[in-house]
What we know:
Layout lengths: L35 H7 L4 H8 L7 H6 L8 H6 L5 E5 L4 H6 L6 E6 L6 E2 L1 H13 L5 E3 L5 E6 L4 H10 L16 E2 L6 H17 L6 H6 L27 E4 L13 E7 L5 E8 L18 E6 L4 H15 L10 H8 L1 H12 L19 E4 L5 E5 L5 E2 L8 H11 L3 E4 L5 E6 L4 H10 L13 E3 L17 H14 L9 E4 L13 E7 L2 E6 L10 E8 L3 H15 L6 H7 L23
Parallel strand pairs: 6-7, 7-8, 16-17, 17-18
Antiparallel strand pairs: 1-2, 2-5, 3-14, 4-5, 4-13, 8-9, 9-10, 11-12, 12-15, 14-15, 18-19, 19-20
Helix pairs in contact: 1-2, 6-13, 8-10, 10-12, 13-14, 15-16
Amino acid sequence: MDDHKPIDTPDGPALETPGAGARRFEAPPSDLPITEAEAARLAGLAHNEHLKIASGYLRGGLADGLLKHATGAISEDDGQLVKFHGMYMQDDRDIRAERTKKKLEKAFSFMIRLRIAGGVVTPKQWLALDQIATTYANGTLRATTRQTFQYHGVIKSNLKRTMAAIDAVLLDTIAACGDVNRNVMAATNPAQAGAHKVAYQLAKDISDSLLPKTNAWREIWLDGERVVGGEEEFEPVYGKTYLPRKFKTVVAVPPSNEVDIFAHDLGFIAILDKKNKVTGWNVTVGGGMGMTHGESDTFPRTADVMGFCAPQDALKVAEAVMTVQRDWGNRKNRKNARLKYTIERFGLDAFRAEVENRIGKKLGSPKPFVFDGNGDRYGWVEGDDGRHHLTLYVPSGRIKDVEGGPQFLTGLRRIAEIHEGDFRLTGNQNVIIANVPAGKRAEIEALVDQYAMTKGAGALRRNSMACVALPTCGLALAESERYLPDLLTELEESLASHGLQDEEITIRSTGCPNGCARPFIAEIGLVGRGPERYHLYLGAAFDGSRLSKLYREDVTAAEIRGVLDPLFAAYAKDRQLGEHFGDFVIRAGFVSKTTNGPDFHERTGPLKAA
Ligand code: HEM
Ligand code: SF4
């Protein structure tokens, strides 16, 4: 597969070849020896590319920066590198202005994200993660939209202690952020237990095999020893420059698309026989959400189904897709660097041919599959192996105790103390208490009730997601997690007034167009533009296979209900049997249909005002 030979891109020669240590930078203007980082600058590469090259396999100045006690921050460059270690430096934006006025440093702290392939944790791990949340973070655990946990508010002086506590329960944060293959998701539907075991195993194998090999994480956070001398550390797959941009992989098991496979760089769709046995995988490539407002050459894109592979080839295919992106991806412009743009540039056929070249065989034609939605199934289900599983609805994935409301933190702690199965996070920020033996079900149910944990919610709410946004996310332009619950209450009233309270409609909100809660594949998408202002997108498919379209620009939070209410009225009156809201708004002419990324920004035809 990767024979460590220089790999030329269709654009020209490769800039840096992993493994071989060989470089193909343009000759410098003098004979003086130059550093690789300098050569990267001369080649016009993005700043992060120089950083990666000069970082000594992701070490940079992190170890020294942690010793600087006069500041709660680390340097800007180390702030980029620390992402590869699963962290983002942030500051509390609610008090930023006040601190600036008092001439104080911003209130810096770190967001720490774990790597939990398939989102599976044991009760023992749960208890440890809970304790870390209350000891070092802000007292909450956040279940994310990509099946893992995040902590918020960890200050610099507690970083190493937090990492040691995470390591003590055999978890880590390596590659949870940064230009690498990130946490690998796997569908969780326990009702098809056999197929899900296979999906989970593939996710775990991909996560392990595409993990960076550098020892930097252990060395910096756990005071691990640095390997010195002849044995230079080596990233056989990534090389010194890792990937041009983040890379996200998921494994889905139809009919559920809860992992939102079309929003990801690489995906595997299980093809099942009549007995629910996995016979192979359809391979998807080139999905992604992020874009920049006002820059139409950036766009979200749904993944293409590229072909079919046999079970024994899946791991090779994953590595080949990632290494083609490693070699062909744009390293000059980070806004054009994700796999979705690589595929747009070179075409799916050329991309597939190169993947086939690297795996040494042809992919088969994609096999038929059907997805019925991208949400979760709440409440109890019994798996085909006789175990029981309870999916809880966790508002915005925030595991905390609310006075007079749900006590998820304490309640799930109590359950972890007696639970014999495991916990699973879903791609919709929810938690499954999984693998409960029949005899334990009543005991778990009693605890769920005692701590007022929600087993479901109204139809709109249970199909909702919000990213974190303010106050921690430095990129947020508007509120998301903090305002969505109130908006949902308003919209639920509006829907009920048209008799639509039981309609399953997906709604997602993010504080900026990076799209962490995948708003562009929700039937109603709200994307922050500025304080209390959102772009409103409509017309995505309920199963997550089609993007939405911009319906209204700069709607204020207070206006959203008024804008949507007439659409709900029309939907109640004119919809066809079984027609989803996202399909209806297109048929009724409120928005035009987006076929894929490049036409996301096109607004064709006179659009009907509601
Ligand atoms: C250029 C694109 C992006 C950037 C720069 C970015 C950056 C960030 C930052 C800074 C956070 C931390 C917010 C906080 O917790 O305070 C975050 C959260 C998160 N992002 Fe992104 N993000 C991008 C796109 C995406 C996309 C497209 C996805 C998913 C498909 C995603 C998945 C997540 C997840 C799972 C979280 C955790 C919080 C949550 O569940 O809401 N990100 N992102
Ligand atoms: S979508 Fe934007 S505001 Fe929301 S978490 Fe992601 S980067 Fe932050």
